[in-house]
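Collaborator request, handled under Task 6.
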Amino acid sequence: MKKSAAKGSTAKVTAAPIADPTLPRSVVNYILQRRRVLTAVHSGRPFEGADVCDADHYLLKAARFHGVHTTQDCPVCRREQLTEVTYIFGDELGHISGAAIDPRRLLDLAERTGEFRVFVVEVCTQCRWNYLTRSYVLGDGVFRRPPRRPPDLLR
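C-alpha cells returned to the collaborator:
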C-alpha cells in the first residue's frame, strides 16, 4: 500500500498491465518435495508430518466433480489414475476465491482479473493420496474491485 496525499488514506498501487495475462508467472513446482515424500513412503522410513493418504471428503468431491483425470497412476496404491484439482485464490475473485474450478475457465478469468493464484493438487480417489504439485499466478495486472456477492449466497 502506498500513502496518498490525504492524511491517513491508502491507495492501492496499480501494477503495469501484463502483456499476456494467460501466461503463468511466479511458478512454484513442488515435484522435488513430492519425490522426497514418496521415497520415504516406499522405503519404510518414518515420515515427518501427517499421513500421506489423508484427503478429506471436500477434496475428494472436488476431484469427482471438478477434477481432470490424468494418465498418471497413483504413486502410492498404483491401482487408479490420478485426478488433478485446480483451486483459485485472490482478493479480486470475490466469492469464488478458494473454489475448485474447471481449468478451462482459467484463461477467461486471467483476462478479466488483475491477479490471482492457482493451486493444482493431485488426488487419488482410491487410496486418498493427495499432494500440491504446483502453483502460479495469472491475471492482467489491472486492479479491479471484487464482484458483489450474489444475493442468493448464504453469509
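The cover message to the collaborator said: "The mean pLDDT is 82. The longest strand covers residues 81-89. Please let us know whether this matches your experimental observations."
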